[in-house]
Design goal:
By secondary structure, the protein is an alpha+beta fold. 21% of the residues lie in helices and 38% in strands.
Length: 169
Amino acid sequence: MSAITPDIEFSIRQFLGREAMLLDNGRLDDWVALLDENILYEIPLRISARKREDEFPKGAFRMHEDMAMIRKRLERMGTNENWAEDPASRTVRTVGSVLVEADEGDGIYRVHSALSLYRQRAIDRAYEWIPARRIDRIRVGSDGACQLVRRTVILAETILQTPNLAVFL
């Protein structure tokens, strides 16, 4: 089990801030370099249910992607076939409520965070707000460099108010 030191926690918090900045500035090639080759990026489907444990139907996802799928999405964004993000969204991500937990081996830590995403498109006055919680697995190297190994995004809403989830959360 990997201990959580102040240096580890600082590296992870800096990583999350850098990641948000890269995504907000559209630097997707730099962002993808922060991902582990075996990344799993998922957004499970959430439904209204009486009990919390029934909110997530097993095997149902809004998004369930590996590195190949992420790269394919990025490749498509560079074409004229990317109507969901043409023009590109203007976004501001706020990441907070960060909690770092030790995970098992390989310098991988379980990291909980809250995400608030502001998004506006084209000349629309309207904007979207997408609140979510994230559960990440982040590998911290001996030099303090971090890589995202897995991300699970838990959307606060069961019925999305956004027409698409073409941005990374």
